[in-house]
Backbone:
């Protein structure tokens, strides 16, 4: 069996790992077909609206709590596309942004995502171009981000309290609320213009989206370790997570999907 892709805390990436991640992202951002960054951005909200939030997707009338499984599949396909653009060494996985960490509570958005340029070159973790000609009105611009006060990011104690919830439904609802809050915090506004992270339609174009959702996925994984990998309503299991071919059942075990989370900073108990 091929070795597992390790998803690391962005704060613990080595300079070569960060460099490999940036190079792969740069390549992805310059590809405009379905291997590219813009394609993935356009699946979540504008203009395709596949995402599931608060038991709803614009594409279906069913009310299903698919927020966590759908985003797990989404990240998986994005990560595969990212790795396709990366060299073999070092192996990269999506990094996760621990917004509960002391560093995050001091500086907010991780430095890797906030620096405008690295050695004079564009930082693909800072921004991405949104190209959505099918949107009404059409969009063609850079993503924007106006993060809030770092002290207002959620605490580790809050995440711990979520891990103690024994019912998937309660856990999913409460984690999604925390997730919404961080989206709004990261997007913010400059008075007249709102940031993309706070806008469902364009959030997935902000490179920070992927690391925010990686943390959400990791919290679900930690919850599964504590409350049961298969702890989910049985009627959800056969549901296909469109546009991906995976079902909910397929995404329950992250190791079977080919990745794992590096244990660093936050212990898995
Ligand atoms: Cu989100």
Residues:
């Amino acid at each position: 069996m091929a070795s597992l892709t390790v998803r690391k805390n962005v704060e613990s990436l080595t300079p070569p790992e960060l460099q490999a991640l940036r190079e792969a992202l740069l390549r992805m951002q310059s590809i405009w077909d379905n291997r590219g960054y813009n394609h993935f951005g356009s699946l979540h909200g504008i203009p395709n609206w596949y995402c599931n939030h608060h038991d709803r997707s614009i594409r279906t009338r069913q009310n299903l709590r698919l927020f966590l499984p759908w985003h797990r599949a989404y990240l998986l396909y994005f990560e595969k596309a990212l790795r396709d653009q990366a060299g073999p060494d070092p192996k990269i996985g999506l990094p996760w942004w621990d917004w509960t960490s002391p560093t995050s509570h001091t500086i907010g958005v991780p430095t890797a995502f906030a620096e405008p340029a690295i050695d004079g070159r564009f930082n693909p973790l800072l921004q991405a171009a949104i190209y959505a000609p099918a949107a009404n009105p059409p969009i063609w611009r850079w993503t924007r981000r106006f993060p809030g006060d770092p002290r207002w990011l959620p605490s580790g104690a809050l995440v711990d309290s979520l891990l103690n919830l024994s019912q998937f439904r309660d856990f999913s609802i409460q984690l999604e609320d925390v997730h919404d809050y961080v989206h709004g915090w990261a997007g913010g506004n400059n008075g007249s213009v709102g940031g993309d992270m706070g806008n469902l339609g364009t959030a997935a174009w902000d490179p920070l989206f992927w690391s925010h959702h990686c943390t959400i996925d990791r919290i679900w994984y930690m919850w599964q370790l504590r409350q049961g990998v298969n702890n989910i309503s049985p009627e959800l299991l056969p549901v296909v997570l469109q546009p991906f071919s995976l079902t909910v059942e397929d995404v329950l075990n992250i190791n079977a999907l080919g990745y794992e989370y590096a244990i660093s900073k936050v212990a898995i108990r």
